[in-house]
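task queued by scheduler; priority normal; single chain, no ligands, no partner chains; default sampling; output format set to structure tokens
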Amino acid sequence: MNVIKVIRDAVMAYGRPNQILADNGTQFRNLIGELGAKYTRLLGNLGIKPIFAKPRHPETKGKLERWFGTVRTMFMVEARFNVKNNLNCTLTDFNQMLKEWVDWYNIEKSYRSLPGKCALVKRYLDVKDRIFRPLKANMNWTRWLHEVEQRKVSKYNEIHYKAQKFKVPPGFSGTKLDVIEYEDKIEIYHKEKLIVNHAYIVPILNQVLLTKYPA
């Protein structure tokens, strides 16, 4: 869910990149490869090509690994000094400090190795078609940020979900539909389209178990 939130925030703020590079963690690829992984399905809906680093080949992500070194050698020195002199510094304060430093590094700092000693953001955004493609897909981010379960529709136009029956419109008999559970309702989707929602109450047994054995 955290990966999807990061993608959502990045796309809404900066537009869609052509590709996203990831490693082979299970949040990006399932055990049988990329097919069926929620991450790759999301990128498919966004029109973004997922690419993956070669296993045991850290050089693929060399620029990112180098970035971590830059943060340690440049930002952390300043951050430790500020925290030492402000013992009331909270995690929120620290994160804001990091955000301001990253903005300075990308937007304000000039680089002798770049044309005209420009800032990184200018070099990155001035390349034609690199980013800022319009988000044409009508994304239901709420749907992607909840766990989805599939249920097969019976010949009576019903699905069974957690010992309860829910009606669906005619025409879906034998079809597998996606079910998303919220606190007070469930939504039922066919592919990406919402077809019906129902009020939903957590069964009494589950309520008792949750009360007796809180998470």
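post-processing summary
- The CA atoms of residues 111 and 117 lie 5 Å apart.
- The longest strand covers residues 193-199.
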